[in-house]
# Entry
Amino acid sequence: MSAGGAPMMTGGTGSNVGGAGTATGGAPPTAGTGGSGGTTPGPKYNPDFKEFYGEDCPVSEPAEVNNSKLPDLFQNLDGSRLSQKDQWRCRRAELKRIVEKFIHGEKPGKPEKVTGSVSKTSISVKVEHMGKSVSFSVPVSIPAGVTGPAAVIIGLGGGSLSSKVLMEEGVGTINYNNGTLADEKSRSGLFTQIYGSTGASAQIGWAWGVSRIIDVLVDEKAAGRNDVIDPMAVGVTGCSRLGKGAFTIGAFDERIALGIPQESGTGGVSAFRVVNTAPVGPNGKPAQSLDSAWSEAQGWFGTAFQTYKGKVNSIPGDTHSLVAMYAPRGLLVLDNSRIGELGAPAQHAASAAGALVYKALGVEKNIEYHGGRPDDPHNHCSFYAEQEQPLRDAIRAFLTHKAEPNGKIEPQPAGTADLTKWIDWQAPTLN
# Structure
């Protein structure tokens, strides 16, 4: 759908995969060595606190398939299946490559030089790479009374979560003007000033910009100049077109502790294969088609997707691959089953399929899908009362570490997908 978000007024089992820190993800993470600027604490699943923890994994070039169902998230590109939890890191690298090749285009890694500054009111970023440079800044707001490095949520366009909840939970906000990094129609912006027209989606440009913000947070903390924001307690959110961006941003940067895509629809969480069945919502409207989404804003996708939007069954992945890329980190999908164009059954299917990865890793409570309430007068991108507790639970589990995660997959009848029709595989028991 075309509406944007309103201003933000409103751990794992085993040694290889963890949640936010402890066995179930609620306590402060363990320490690790790494980051981009010295000794930086890292969670158990990403102890070096890397943007892409699987960057050293060998990944074969994914090939087209012929599969009308959501592809098996546990089957490696060589045909083998996962059997160990510590294999997830490299399987995730394969999913990332699938998403890049068929849907979004490639996200570059850290540029040659990223510098900036952090204050209680703003973060400045300067990128220098291949003889080119760009700069941008983002406003910061920290709740009064918060001492020490604060948890923050990056809101695309400000976001549309409840300011009351965030203030009461002691969470700061970063207002991210993603459009300056890449225009959703032309894909041009600061990102292309550095890399040129690569064919990557605008969402990749947005994700690249957020990663540079996190680089500054990490490096300035390592240098002793950032006691304002905790780089390990960063979430990302947005609604509608900006929910699409929040979903992709969090999937691609493993330093982001919590993703909160809200009502993201087609081009966001909604599984392509389910969208193509045109499920109809209570308002009598079907899910926005892929052709419609492409026509509305081609930058929601990479240029390669033009070839595949009419033959999504040939893609060896789907949006459930992006859901899985979050695992074992926190993911809270906020949906609205009343608005048919948002394709709630497609969002539920992707979330429920991706949740099988969380379950196999022993962190099934680290993901939550909230389908809304059919009797609530819920307008698009309006935060409402039923979402308050899931938001508080996610913040306390993954950002402030005050409680254990409490996630659940909770669709509404009008927005429920029959997962048995969409997957013909089961999650293995991972050792």
